[in-house]
Amino acid sequence: MSRLLRVADGPYAPPVPARELTVTAADGARVHVEVHGPENAPAVVLAHGWCCSTAFWAAQIRELAADHRVIAYDQRGHGRSPANPAYGTEPLADDLEAVLDATLAPGERAVIAGHSMGGMTLMAAATRPAVREHAAAVLLTSTGSARLVASATVVPMRAGRVRTCLTRRILGSRAPLGPVTPLARRILKYGTMGPGSAPHMVDACARIVHSCPSRVRHGWSQVLDLLDLDHGVRELRMPAEIVVGTADRLTPPEHARALAAALPDCVGLTELPGVGHMTPVEAPDLVTGKIRALAATYISSARGERAVPVEESA
């Protein structure tokens, strides 16, 4: 379990959920889920990325929970979801399917937003019955479907085998990240955020990323290295919108453009000048607005009663 080095106050301090529950995935993995907002409001599901947690969505949760039921969960091994020996895209899909089945009523539709590995989770789960049943629309932010290491620009040199090898070593490092120091913030900002990111944004992201256990960070880096979900993109048949920062070093805009070309029903691609990989933190109002607009457009006003959760936690 992570150390949960969360921001204590301000826009990136995680709001207190209305309730929490633990769901069990198909392989027995336990997944921590938070629910915010009114019970009968339109539903939004948030899937975070590699090395993050539900705290990553604090700004979106804070705004959307006023008039939406916001469901956020920790990917296995992240946040308050215990580590599990199963790493891979199928386990990611298992976890999302378990969350949807536990928190949404039969036939209830939701907007599902995925950042980075959360977007990849949606691609991996595209053919799952729960996604087909519940996803009214999806938002893919700062993500890609394949060839992630070769295209990353974390190492400032020309693309090729040497850059790919160095990038693989950096992203796959087993070294602990240690405390959140000024140097750690500068390194994280360079690798994951735009040059104009405000200090409080950088600090929030650093605390979240440094909370991820090194073994979990390494395990999922291997999955991302070998990622090939191009087939899953073609199966995301619901309306899909894409957001990417032009200064994204981990999933550069070429990935977003490829997604837009491959998605069956792409309803928009937004490229944010100067924004890095952490779009929900760096451009919180825009990302929140995209989610809100998708919910207003694609979620029917006819909603069933909420499903009974699998297991409530204290």
Architecture blueprint of SSEs:
Elements: E1 19-24, E2 30-36, E3 43-47, H1 58-64, E4 69-73, H2 89-103, E5 110-115, H3 117-124, H4 129-134, E6 135-141, H5 148-151, H6 161-171, H7 182-192, H8 199-210, H9 214-225, H10 230-235, E7 240-245, H11 253-262, E8 266-272, H12 279-282, H13 284-298
Parallel strand pairs: 3-4, 3-5, 5-6, 6-7, 7-8
Antiparallel strand pairs: 1-2, 2-4
Tally of DSSP β-strands = 8
> Average pLDDT, to the nearest integer?
93
| Residue fraction in strands | 15-25%
Q: Uncertain regions: pLDDT < 50 for 5+ in a row?
A: 301-314
Cα(first) to Cα(last) distance is 17 Å
Task: Assign the structural class, choosing from mainly alpha, mainly beta, alpha/beta, alpha+beta, or little secondary structure.
Answer: alpha/beta
Q: What's the SSE pattern?
A: EEEHEHEHHEHHHHHHEHEHH
Percent of residues in helices: 25-40%
DSSP helical segment count: 13
The largest beta-sheet arranges its strands as: 1-2-4-3-5-6-7-8
User: Rough shape?
Assistant: globular
Radius of gyration: 18 Å
For the largest beta-sheet, the strand count, sense and barrel status come to: 8 strands, mixed
Describe this structure in words.
The chain has an eight-stranded mixed β-sheet, sandwiched between helices. The chain has 13 helices and eight strands. The protein is 39% helix and 16% strand.
